[in-house]
Write a structure and sequence with these properties.
Helix content is 33%, strand content 31%. Helix 3 packs across helix 8 and helix 7 crosses helix 8. The radius of gyration is 21 Å and the shape is globular. The two termini are 17 Å apart. Helix 6 links the parallel strand 8 and strand 9. The protein contains eight helices and 13 strands. It folds into two domains: 81 residues, 2-Layer Sandwich (Alpha-Beta Plaits), CATH 3.30.70.260; 195 residues, Rossmann fold. The longest helix has 24 residues. With 285 residues, the chain is α/β, with parallel strands linked by helices. It has a seven-stranded mixed β-sheet with strand order 7-6-5-8-9-10-11. It has a four-stranded antiparallel β-sheet with strand order 2-3-1-4, with helices on one face.
Length: 285
């Protein structure tokens, strides 16, 4: 892979932004291999994601990034550079269910997700054998009853020690404390079924079957203190018919969860998302 940079940028929208950015890249002999943009007419905001081939730069990569600051500030922009290639340090939190975890491991092994899994962390030990087979550390953290607060403190200590950039809740069945969400804001991804808030609690697929739902799906989103209300990254849906049993709904739901979570992680680790208040701007690949 050629050396390169990913640039994510958001700013107030006004004429000439694209030309100014492209001109800066060209002025240093950089080559734009991708330029995705979105002008929000309602919010008067501009969002962009660029990939830049830096193999022919006439300055160092550090000087290129530093020099961009003059332009970025003149645009009133917020921006972020990432050097290519890279692997994002990622911790995966689990409970009992393993289908989302297995999807992450498979796609990582196939090279679809540029991540380095630092460890698996579970409030149950059901996934310990999967971690062992994958050659990954597994941390079993007791969180039942009065141990909940201590457990979350232990998890936060593990995440800090592992210097993680991304935390994936792969069907981790615990509600994160507000302080946890704030510390790792914009770096926690979760998955949930599409029935929320319609069918909350035990056995939502049985509830959905009884109500004769016609669509089933899953939502991948960033985690905030607003339970299951963070910015949406990706959603998947399957049509349901009258002959589908509750087990069929669960099967279709698992498929949606795996697909939505895998895409959500991919968009995040490839810097294809920009969080804008309560929503995520996503530039699909």
């Amino acid at each position: 892979m050629r050396p390169g940079l990913i640039l994510k940028l958001s700013s107030p929208d006004h004429p000439g932004i694209v030309a100014k950015i492209a001109s800066y890249v060209a002025s240093h002999s950089g080559n734009l291999t991708e330029f995705s943009q979105f002008s929000d007419q309602l919010g008067k905001k501009f969002f962009a994601r660029l990939e830049i081939d830096t193999s022919g730069l006439d300055v160092t990569v550090e000087d290129f990034k530093t020099g961009f600051g003059t332009l970025g500030r003149s645009l009133g922009a917020t921006w972020h550079f990432r050097e290519l290639p890279y692997k994002m340090r990622t911790a995966v939190l689990v409970t009992k269910t393993d289908h989302c975890l297995n999807e992450i491991l498979l796609r990582t092994e196939l090279g679809e997700l540029p991540i380095e899994i630092t460890s698996l962390i579970g409030n149950r030990d059901n996934c310990a054998r999967i971690a062992e087979r994958a050659g990954l550390p597994f941390h079993h953290v007791e969180m039942d009853g009065p141990l909940r607060e201590k457990g979350f403190t232990e998890i936060q200590d593990l995440l800090r020690a592992q210097n993680v950039e991304l935390i994936v809740l792969a069907r981790f069945m615990q509600i994160l404390p507000d302080s946890f969400c704030q510390e790792f804001s914009g770096r926690i991804i979760n998955i949930h079924h599409s029935f929320l808030p319609a069918f909350i609690g035990a056995n939502p697929y049985k509830q959905a079957h009884e109500r004769g739902v016609k669509l089933i799906g899953a939502t991948c989103h960033y985690v905030t203190a607003d339970l299951d209300g963070g910015p949406i990254i990706e959603q998947e849906v399957e049509r349901v018919s009258h002959f589908h049993s509750p087990n069929d709904l669960a099967r279709l739901g698992r498929h949606c969860e795996r697909a939505a979570l895998a895409k959500g992680i991919r968009y995040h680790v490839h810097d294809r998302t920009i969080i804008d208040d309560h929503r995520a701007i996503v530039f699909p690949d």
